[in-house]
TrEMBL record:
GO terms for cellular component: endoplasmic reticulum membrane. This is UDP-N-acetylglucosamine--dolichyl-phosphate N-acetylglucosaminephosphotransferase. It comes from Microthyrium microscopicum. The keyword Magnesium applies. GO terms for molecular function: glycosyltransferase activity; metal ion binding; UDP-N-acetylglucosamine-dolichyl-phosphate N-acetylglucosaminephosphotransferase activity. It is a multi-pass membrane protein. InterPro entries: Glycosyl_transferase_4, GPT.
Length: 468
């Protein structure tokens, strides 16, 4: 079933009410001292309603422009609009650009004699209007703009991928180009390349707590920016999973941010600005993603396309890099990291990799089953041994011929593995199971970050206001 441009009466009422309420909040914020958090929440609401409507209005246009795909896991394989994540991404970008006046204020007041000359420069007093209300000085604006630039680059490249279906070996590197603006501004503006070491490693570096990674830190950040978008794009192929996992990740990062902004957290704290910054980047993302999920959840009326996967992943990467909390992000990305490592033999072509690895839809039962790859040529003995060990511990489902050669295996993705473990199930139950796993891993990750990390680091920066 494809998306329709008609709105039900309830839909119209709900969307109109929410839009008016959000504009009301914005008008209020503008007249008062300006509370960027309330403004960001209002922007998030407007993002939701506008993405929701735009997707409905543009569905037919996308199909006409050949941006369409067949849902392979349905009885009737109808074509539905593809790359709708582009709509969500563009609404998001416009929202965070329009949001700029709310968190930033003029900290340098200039007087001009005309022609754009800055004759007098007077430093304005930094105004703190309260714990959550304070605004950022202009130096943060550079970081904010670099985030926007990086996201714009990735959206353009993502749309290119959705239009031209770029080959996998090329598209894996697309996010590296997207990361350039953030990395350059990080270098010019921030430049911190030190990491704090766990206690057990310190004796090897003369007892120091911090080590400077220099250029290696930039390589690490570029690697992180390549990993995030691709890891979301390969944990895909069943209705709703790309958006739902991104939404869960955004909410978990927001939960971590809130821990630093609660009245009980130490104040003032050097990490507060980074986490406030992260809140401003993520709230509108939650708005656009919720609207996209409404149309993309089982049974999907639209597909999100690679644009959304790249955009969402790049947003997390940018957020982690600029907020200097990429280590915490790795803990939230446990399912993606597992899926990436588990997929590696197919991605690196040690084992043949079909164009699509999404689970197989059984037309007789209507349930999803693990999709399989058959091997026309015998695999190398070492690979066969590893695969047999993996099958013995239920990490793969393999089939062998009379002489013991592996002739078939389930595809190497966490989605197929879930089906190997729990048996065939309906597509939406499969998605819900994987999302529950994402939530559980994320909460465990945050627990490790703030409680168990104390076992290997001398302090958790949530408790101590002096350490970033
Ligand atoms: C990645 C995966 C591929 C998986 C695909 C599904 C790797 C290396 N690549 O490829 O194995 O099959 O994502 O998104 O892991 N589709 C559905 N139902 C859905 C979502 C997508 O049938 O819920 C199909 C549609 O035909 C859609 C297509 O997948 O048009 C989109 O595939 P695309 O995003 O282009 O695949 P890749 O990202 O290249
Ligand atoms: Mg994809």
């Amino acid at each position: 079933m494809t998306v329709s441009p008609q709105f039900s009466r309830t839909e119209s009422w709900a969307l109109t009410t929410l839009t008016i309420a959000c504009f009301g909040v914005l008008a209020n914020v503008f007249q008062g001292d300006g509370n960027p958090v309330s403004a960001s929440l209002a922007f998030s609401g407007i993002c939701y309603t506008s993405t929701y409507c735009m997707i409905k209005w543009l569905g037919a246009t996308f199909i006409k422009a050949n941006l369409k795909g067949r849902d392979m896991s349905k009885l009737k394989k109808v074509e539905i609009p593809e790359a709708m994540g582009a709509v969500a991404a563009i609404v998001y970008l416009l929202a965070i650009i329009t949001f700029i006046p709310f968190p930033f204020y003029k900290d340098i007041v200039t007087a001009t004699s005309g022609g754009g000359n800055r004759d007098f420069v007077i430093e304005a007093q930094h105004i703190e209007t309260g714990r959550l209300l304070h605004k950022f000085p202009h130096n943060k604006l550079a970081s904010y703009l670099s985030a926007i630039l990086s996201l714009q680059v990735i959206v353009i490249l993502g749309i290119g991928d959705d239009l031209f279906d770029i080959r996998w070996r090329h598209k894996v590197l697309i996010p590296a180009f997207g990361a350039i603006p953030v990395l350059i501004v990080y270098f010019v503006d921030f430049g911190v390349t030190q990491i704090s070491l766990p206690t057990f490693l310190r004796p090897y570096v003369g007892g120091r707590e911090l080590v400077d990674l220099g250029v290696l830190y930039y390589l690490y950040m570029a690697g992180f920016a390549i990993f995030c978008p691709n890891s979301i794009n390969i944990l895909a192929g069943i209705n709703g999973i790309e958006v739902a996992q991104s939404l869960v990740l955004a909410l978990l990062i927001l939960l971590n941010d809130v821990l630093y902004l609660l009245p009980s957290a130490p104040y003032p704290h050097p990490a507060i600005d980074s986490h406030l910054f992260s809140v401003y980047l993520l709230l509108p993302f939650v708005g656009v993603s919720l609207a996209l999920l409404k149309h993309n959840w089982f049974p999907s009326k639209v597909f999100v396309g690679d644009t959304y996967c790249y955009f969402a992943g790049m947003l997390f990467a940018v957020d982690g890099i600029l907020g200097h909390f990429s280590k915490t992000l790795w803990l939230l990305l446990i399912p993606q990291v597992f899926n990436f490592i588990y997929s590696a033999p197919q991605i690196l072509h040690l084992v043949p990799c079909p164009r699509h690895r999404l689970p197989h839809f059984n037309v007789r039962t209507g349930l999803m089953e693990p999709s399989r790859v058959t091997f026309e040529r015998p695999l190398r003995p070492i690979i066969q041994t590893v695969m047999k060990i993996a099958a013995a511990v239920k990490l793969l489902d393999i089939k062998t011929d009379e002489s013991g050669n592996i002739i078939e295996s389930s595809n190497f993705t966490i989605i197929n593995l879930w089906l190997v473990w729990f048996g065939p199930m309906r597509e939406d139950r499969l998605a819900m199971g994987l999302i529950a796993l994402q939530i559980a891993c994320g909460l465990l990750g945050l627990f490790i970050r703030h409680k168990l990390a104390l076992l290997i680091f001398t302090s958790d920066n949530l408790q101590h206001s002096s350490i970033i």
